[in-house]
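Quick one, T. Sequence first:
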Amino acid sequence: MTLHGKRVLLTGGTTGIGRALLIKLAAEGARVLTFGRDADALDEALAAAGGETSGIVADIGRANEVERIFREVDHRLGGIDVLVSNAALGAEPIDEMADADWRYVLDVNLAGAMGCARAALERFDGGGQIVIVGSISSVIHAPGESVYSATKAGLAAFAETLRKETAERGVRVSLIEPGTTGSDMQAAEADEQREQIAAHEMLDADDIAEAIHFVLTRPERVDVVTLRIEPRIQALS
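Structure tokens:
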């Protein structure tokens, strides 16, 4: 299937995996609306992508922002064919975070993703596609990731169940679970990340963008349920 002319909402398209995917979608001729919390990062990503891309500054950690985002979807795209739910935050162990902070991570990573999926389903007309970017943290449960892995485990359960709930309506739902991937969420500096990528200890964001592109271009009869992608040498703890 071609992505040319497809109306896509890409959440968190300003850095890392989202930025790499924004560029790829634009090159394929998709019409893409994205958002992020940082105006400068948003402007840079849109300039790098070119094509039929647009963006707004928004925060899906706030429930009313999801409604505003989808008003922009209606206004700028005239509907939606594809939702790529990518926006997420990292987190510290729960006992090292203020109560408001770990709850905000849940609001962004899980509640925000669910709210966007719900709004997309309301707008799909005779089918549609949802790709949810999760993480292998949902299954490896590494120390230090008690909050983050909980949100990603919730996303995995949500994606797998949503697929069963919507398949008969022509909606395809896929879960992408990347391993360690270079991005601003990583503690390592950019130079160290490049070294880890070269050593096959870390994925490049483009690797995940390629995988999402693969999922989005399968024939309508094909539903890629779960795709787990790791660097060849993945740290598991």
